Amino acid sequence: MHFLRPFSALLLAAAFSLVACAQVAGPAKNGPPSYGPELEGFDYPHPVQRFRFTSQGQPLQMAYMDVKPADGAKANGRTAVLLHGKNFCAATWQGTIAALSQAGYRVIAPDQIGFCKSSKPQRYQFSFQQLTHNTRELLASLGIERAAVIGHSTGGMLAVRYALMHPAQTEQLVLVAPIGLEDWQAEGVPWIGIDQWYERELKTSAEGIRRYEQATYYAGQWKPEYERWVQMLAGLNEGPGQHIVAWNSAKVYDMIFTQPVVHEFGAIDVPTLLIIGHMDTTAIGKDRAPESLKARLGNYAELGKRAAAAIPGARLVEFEQLGHAPQIQDPKAFHEALLDGMKAQAKAR
Question: Across the strands, what pairs with 273?
C-alpha cells in the first residue's frame, strides 16, 4: 500500500474529497463489509438522532441514541450518559443501554465528533475540553441538566474531563476500564506526529483488529459475538471514507497521548466508581516503547488501585479475569457491579 509522505494540504484535500464522491456500500461481495465515513450501512440497536451544531467555524452533526426506560421498568428520573472509547462506538454499549434502561434510566449514548456515525472534519482541534463542551451542548439541547456520566476506555478520559469541567451537572462518575491512568509521555514513550499516526491507521485491517481485541479486550478469549465489533471497525476503516476516518483517528490518538488527565484525579469532586479488569494491558504507544519500559506499562491491577487512591472517595471494583471490555466479555457480572455500585453511591450522597 502506498502512503502519502510527506503530507501536503493539497494531497490530503484531494484524498478526502474522494469520500464525498464515494458510493456508500453495505456488505462487500468478498471480504469484510464496507461502511461509509459516518458508518452508513451499520445498524445501531436503537434509532439514531443527530445534534447539529457549529464548532470551530464549521457545521457538524453528532449522532446519538436517546433511549427511554424500558417497557415495564419503573422510571427512576435519572439519566445516564455513555461515552465510548477510541475503538468503540455508541452501538458497543448495546448491553449496557439495555441494563440501564431496564433499571429505569433514560440513556443517552452519543458518538463523539470524529467517530462512528458523527462528522469527520478535515480540520478540527481535538481536545477533551472540546469534546466535553460538545457533549454538554447535546445534553442541554435535550433538557438534561444532571446525569450519571459513564466512560469506557478513552471515554473514561473524557468522562474525567467532563466531571472536572461540569461537577454540578455530574451526579456520578463511572470509569470503565479507563485509559489515561498513567502518563505515557512522562513515562518515556516516544512521541510521534499526526502524520505518522495517519500512516499507521491506514494499515488497519480486520485481522489486526481481531488479534488485538482478543489479546487486550477479552484476555485471550474469543466468542462469535465479538466478531460484530471487529467488522464494524474494519468496515469503517477500510470503507470509502478510509482517508478521512484515518485522519480523524490520528488526531484523536495525538489528543489521547498529549492530554493526560491522571495528574488531576485529586480534583475530582463527584462520587466515582472505578471498574477495572486485571487482564487489561492497554497503553497508548506501548508497541514503540523501549523494552525496559514495556513491561511496566498497562498494569491495570496496580493502576486501578493507584487511581482509586488518588480520586477522593472513589469506589473500586476489580475483575481479576477480565480485560479491557468487561461490559462485553462478561456482561452479567459487569452490569450487576455497575448497577450495584451506582445504587450504593446514590444512597451514600
Answer: 174, 315
